[in-house]
Amino acid sequence: MTDRLPPTTLRLGLPSGSLQSSTVDLFGRAGYRVSIADRSVFPRIDDEKISAVLFRAQEISRYVADNIIDCGLTGYDWVVENGNENDIVEICELEYSRASLNPIRWVLAVPEESTVQKAEDLAGSVIATELVNTTRKYFAQRGINVTVEFSWGTTEIKARLLDAIVDCTETGSSLRANNLRIIDTLLRSTTRFIANKAAWDVPWKREKMENMAMLLKGAIEARAKVGLKMNVPEDKLVEVVSFLPAEKSPTISRLSDQAWVAVEVILEEKQERELIPRLKRAGATGIITYPLNKVIP
Predict the structure, then answer these.
(1) Which residue range forms the structural domain that includes residue 19?
(2) Residue 78's closest CA among 132, 156, 17?
(3) Residue 63: helix, strand or coil by DSSP?
(4) Entry pTM
């Protein structure tokens, strides 16, 4: 892949698997049209200077560090697991994941009926996990002798076949469904946009990556927000503005009818349902809300 690309191409790694769909959606809202043909690992992006390839999230930080790709999106957990913290440039944190905006947690869990109450109770036990290096480091730092085995999947089941597991969770629902109890949290992780150090030192590549980061962060910022427009009588303006939850002053424009003004503001989507009735009662009319693609601070 790398030898056939022109030197003006930015090599981007995108995560396959559970993060793939949400990543493509994020890029779409950021203004990049990404299409992936069936069974292909080479997504098409409507930017001729970006060449993308799908990798497992577990691999991307290694490929970035080894200059196989210039940049990529992967979980902070895999950067830590692969020991690449000092080998790459972290461009930005992107707080999105498979099911929510919440960070994922790698947790130590045991069956609900287990007598284990803390990590020290697992001395001499066998722990199953995908996050082998991080788990070994966790127990070694506490002086607890355990055997850590790599799990190829269905890790929840192995909590009863072995002694405990270290697994990732966003909501905890899968652990509860399997009657597992969390003992401790080893690591919290969000998606990171990372770059190869050599690529980061190339001015046009750095600018390209910084622009991409700005748009991706803007898309995430807009995810839970809406725009709101309304017309307000001049004599009601102070009252209306007083309870608008705006980060900065709302935009106010004079209408042709001098007794009225137009007010526009961005707010959290969850605030909309309680705010609109208050606005209406305060005299606002022509209230419109609309979704946002990007909010650039």
Answers:
(1) 10-100+190-222
(2) 132
(3) helix
(4) 0.85
